[in-house]
Amino acid sequence: MKHYSVLLGESIEYLDIKEDGIYIDGTLGRAGHSSEILKRIPNGHLYAFDKDETAITESTKRLLEIGDNFTIIHKGFEELEQVIEEYKIPAIDGLLLDIGVSSPQFDDGERGFSYRYDARLDMRMDQSQSLSAYEVVNTYSFHDLMHIFRDYGEEPFSKQIARKIEQARMDKPIETTFELVDVIKSALPSKVLNKKGHPAKKVFQALRIEVNNELHALEQVLETGIQHLNDQGRVCVITFHSLEDRIVKKIFQKYAKPEKTDKRIPLMPDEVKQKPYTLITRKPIVANEEELDENHRSHSAKLRVLGKGRLNHENCKKES
Predict the structure, then answer these.
(1) How far is Cα 44 from Cα 300, in angstroms, rounded to an integer?
(2) Same structural domain, 189 and 280
(3) Region annotation Disordered: residue ranges (predicted)?
(4) Which of the listed residues 212, 228, 252 is the one where a domain comes to its end?
(5) Domain span at 159
């Protein structure tokens, strides 16, 4: 299956790439976004992160066809601060994050990310790490499972599903994706099972987030990336569900929203303390009709952009 880079044109446009800039792609994947960045920085450098060795192998070949001014880092993007120190990166001109599991990971049944394929429970983006979905499902307490399903999957039947898992694993471990799907289905009422959409979707999302520590990692990389931006630098983040989008929105507002003032005290515009960052997209950018027709995974994608410095006239035209 062809790999499709979501919101590719929009994210590259909003990065506002400089030929000699330093850019970070925190989610290399199959190098869809990275290759477009590399084409535009003949005198710059690209640092790209990925935990997946297969993705790194494939992407390295693709990027070498464009140039060699890139460094691929086999780590999670939450380690950006350490990498900046290790490589003595003075400041960055852009950070791009395409959050979530790439299409090849979903489509590779053996990786255990999908409820559509029968495989051992896994869901590790970094296959060298010890924690997998198998350990979470079979060793976490009832209460921990319930909280994960509720907080990371927004699953209304989290308590019932956690209880069924606890009961099922007393007989034998739950080893495969289809075994887990059966347990989830057994916990849900028929009115839910008959609804459109897969009944295990929210639980599988929650497990993936837990296994890969995704939300905490997102917070870490955003804080680091924003603080290391050059003037006029950009942070572009593509999210696929509300949990991620809320984190991005909250952190962007923290850095860009002016401090609240007492409306009873008259202030001149230049007396209002301005933050050094700007929300370039006040509302998230979503895929256009053409992309939605070509790629169903683009339907839930949202792009938010933060910039360092005040908007110039050219940037104002781009603001949503």
Answers:
(1) 32
(2) no
(3) 291-320
(4) 212
(5) 109-212
Distances 114 to 63, 200, 265, 305 between C-alpha atoms, Å: 28, 10, 56, 30
Q: For tokens 């140039």, name the residue.
A: 67
Residue 132 in 3-state DSSP? coil
The answer to whether the annotation marks 217 as part of a ligand binding site is no
Rounded Cα distance, 165 and 158, in Å: 11
Q: What is the DSSP string of 256-308?
A: HSPPP--TTS---GGGSPPPSEEES-SS-B---HHHHHH-GGGGG-EEEEEEE
Q: Confirm whether residue 32 is marked as ligand binding.
A: yes
Q: Is the pTM of this model over 0.70?
A: yes
Tell me which DSSP letter residue 158 carries: H
Q: What angle (nearest 5°) sits at the alpha carbon of residue 158, between those of residues 143 and 111?
A: 95
Q: What is the mean pLDDT of residues 10-21?
A: 97
**Residue 51 counted as domain residue:** yes
C-alpha to C-alpha distance for 297 and 288, rounded to whole angstroms: 13
Q: Please give the C-alpha separations between residue 38 and each of 200, 222, 228, in angstroms, as whole numbers.
A: 38, 22, 20
The span from the CA of 47 to the CA of 45, in Å, is 7
Q: Got the DSSP string for 215-263?
A: HHHHHHHHHHHHHTEEEEEEEEEEESSHHHHHHHHHHHHHHHSPPP--T
Say yes or no: 135 and 196 in one domain: yes
233 is in an annotated binding site: no
| Residue 50 labeled ligand binder | yes
pLDDT digits (tens, 9 = 90+) for 144-164: 999 999 999 999 999 999 999
Q: Which residues contact 254 (CB under 8 A, 6 or more apart)?
A: none
pLDDT at 319: 42
Q: Is 31 annotated as a binding residue?
A: yes
Reported confidence tier of residue 296, pLDDT bands at 50, 70, 90: confident
Does residue 77 have a known ligand-binding role? yes
263 vs 171, residue with greater confidence = 171
